[in-house]
Design a protein that fits this description.
The chain is mainly alpha-helical. The protein folds into three domains: 29-59, no CATH class; 91-356, Fic-like fold (Orthogonal Bundle); 392-442, Arc Repressor Mutant, subunit A (Orthogonal Bundle). It contains 20 helices and seven strands. It has helices at 13-18, 27-31, 46-49, 59-73, 93-105, 108-118, 123-142, 149-158, 165-182, 190-201, 206-209, 239-251, 265-279, 286-300, 311-317, 319-331, 337-375, 383-394, 402-409, 413-425, and strands spanning 75-80, 85-89, 222-223, 229-231, 399-400, 429-434, 437-442. The protein has a three-stranded antiparallel beta sheet. A two-stranded antiparallel ribbon has the order 1-2. Helix 5 packs parallel to helix 17, helix 7 runs parallel beside helix 15 (311-317) and helix 7 crosses helix 18 (383-394). The N and C termini lie far apart (88 Å).
Length: 446
């Protein structure tokens, strides 16, 4: 076995600096920074790291050592902007945890297993449909829609027409998420990106949004809460050709087992999310389209549980961190690790939360059925009535109409109405005429 060759001399300017006074006196302190993560395993930007280095160290040299370690681990990701720059990333522990959680808990197979554990309990569809609404609502709120979650859910469940531009935004997002699901088997294209935007924003304020139309000039910028410009997108000239190049990259396979440039679909979906936000191809509604395309790609790759996993609920609660993850990437030579790491931390929490909801629902189902059996009431209810009764008792839904029962339990309107009126006859539910329809709710008094 041959020995490795001896390395003679060093021409690296970073190490040349370390060999000079006064840096060489603290050589061990500097060399301890030659790693991509801090001591707590975090991938921090320069702005955060510079306050954590030991007093007396040269911050520029410290950063050069961190960057050297990161660059050595970079994997090229995708081309961005004009002129083209290649975005890169480092696979962090947080990203690895998120990938593991998604693979175990968010696949189509995992969702089928959850459904089989729940059994034939029809109420589970109520729970899932309730979760579908969460992403549409929270994504709208993240973009500034001033409507409460309760009011928005009531509108969606009762299929009420929107009364305000904010409610129209929620309806648009809801349609866009369903459109992303319906189009999951189509390849990405410039036309599909435009169609997603059109479905999501049409009818809100068409002159402002220009549904399905790409921006034609460079007067679109991203501003912070104080009106400062924090991102100027690439020029409108060449926009469609760049989106076509992005589509080509997305449509390529990167997850074959023998692939040298392997990319997990989660990382690729997050990169697509970033690329749409970075390009900002529309006058407005770019964030909603970017998040919808993230979901579209996860659906496409058989992660069906993402229909019920709302990442925007968590993004809405941390909008500053969400924005900073974009800005840190752009200011640090398109190092997408900041964005990917933040998104993975959110996705990890969202997937864990979805799994917890399922487990709690499974346990509640078992307790509820035992209570019904002990009360002697079990055999008096049909399966559909038991489902609706359980949904009402658990608080997943508080008001029921024949129309929404028909949708949730996949039955005819006549069967839905008979099911609800049967619960009234058993003095379990009450009903009240609201507008043109009867609304049913759990009886609380004697």
């Amino acid at each position: 076995m041959k020995k490795p060759p001896a390395l003679k001399g060093r021409s690296d300017p970073v190490f040349d600096l370390l060999a000079q006074s006064p840096h060489k006196e603290r050589l061990s302190d500097y060399l301890a920074l030659l790693k991509p993560l801090d001591d707590q395993g975090r991938y921090l930007p320069f702005d955060d790291l510079r306050y954590r280095w030991a007093p007396g160290l040269d911050s520029h040299l410290c950063w050069a050592l961190v960057k050297k370690a990161r660059t050595a681990q970079y994997a090229s990701l995708l081309p961005l902007g004009e002129p083209i720059q290649w975005g890169s990333f480092v696979l962090t522990p947080v990203a690895q945890k998120a990938i593991s959680a998604v693979d175990r808990q968010a696949t189509t197979a995992a969702l089928a297993y959850m459904s089989s554990q729940i059994g034939e309990h029809a109420h589970f569809s109520y729970l899932l449909n309730d979760l579908i609404e969460d992403e549409a609502i929270s994504s709208s709120q993240l973009e500034g829609a001033a409507t409460t979650t309760r009011v928005a859910k009531d509108m969606l469940k009762r299929k009420r027409l929107p009364r305000t531009p904010d409610e129209r935004m929620v309806i648009g997002n809801y349609k866009m998420m369903n459109f992303a699901w319906d189009k999951r088997y189509e390849p990405l294209s410039v036309e599909l990106i435009a169609a997603i935007h059109r479905v999501g924003v049409e009818g809100i304020d068409d002159p402002q949004y220009a549904p399905g139309t790409f921006r034609l000039n460079d007067n679109v910028v991203v501003q912070d809460g104080e009106g400062n410009t924090v991102h100027t997108p690439p020029p409108a000239a060449g926009l469609e050709s760049r989106l076509q190049a992005l589509s080509t990259w997305i449509n390529q396979s990167h997850d074959a087992s023998d692939q040298v440039d392997y990319l997990h679909p989660l990382i690729k979906a997050i990169a697509l999310h970033f690329a749409l936000g970075y390009e900002h191809p529309f006058r407005d509604g770019n964030g909603r389209v970017a998040r919808a395309l993230f979901y579209w790609f996860m659906f496409k790759n058989d992660f069906s549980a993402f229909r019920y996993i709302a990442i925007s609920v968590l993004l809405r609660n941390a909008p500053v961190k969400y924005g900073h993850s974009y800005l840190h990437t752009e200011s640090d030579e398109l190092d997408l690790t900041y964005f990917i790491d933040f998104q993975c931390s959110v996705i990890l929490r969202a997937v864990t939360g979805f799994t917890e909801v399922y487990r709690k629902n499974l346990a509640y189902t078992e307790r509820f059925d035992r209570w019904l059996m002990a009360s002697g009431f079990f055999d008096q209810l049909t399966e559909k009535q038991r489902a609706i009764y359980q949904v009402a008792k658990s608080g997943v839904a508080k008001e029921f109409t024949a129309a929404n029962v028909m949708d949730n339990l996949n039955c005819s309107y006549k069967t839905a109405a008979a099911t609800l009126n049967g619960l009234v006859d058993l003095q379990v539910f009450e009903k009240r005429k609201m507008g043109q329809e009867w609304v049913f709710f759990l009886r609380t008094g004697p």
